[in-house]
């Protein structure tokens, strides 16, 4: 679980650097990735996640988020707008 804690903190910190809205979709749940609590209750490595990124710095945010998810072996795709 400790590995997951590191992932949650790093994902939230990375997301917080951007002004864009970054929402994680897991099945039928939507979580603001800037919310550490929301991530703790949702993030499990076996699942497929979809990121919805909308805002002025969306492109940079998408690249940074994919990088941090992959670093922690989490399966993520960017949702098409």
UniProtKB/TrEMBL annotation:
InterPro entries for this protein: HPr-like (IPR000032), HPr-like_sf (IPR035895)
Family matches, as SUPFAM superfamilies: HPr-like (SSF55594)
Gene3D superfamilies found in the cross-reference section: HPr-like
Entry superkingdom: Bacteria
Domain HPr: 10-70
Protein name (record): HPr domain-containing protein
The organism of origin for this protein: Saccharibacillus endophyticus
């Amino acid at each position: 679980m400790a590995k997951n804690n590191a992932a949650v903190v790093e994902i939230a910190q990375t997301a917080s650097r951007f002004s864009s809205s970054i929402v994680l979709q897991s099945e039928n749940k939507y979580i603001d990735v800037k919310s550490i609590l929301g991530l703790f209750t949702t993030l499990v490595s076996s699942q497929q996640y979809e990121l919805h990124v909308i805002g002025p710095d969306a492109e940079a945010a998408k690249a940074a988020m994919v990088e941090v998810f992959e670093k922690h072996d989490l399966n993520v795709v960017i949702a098409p707008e």
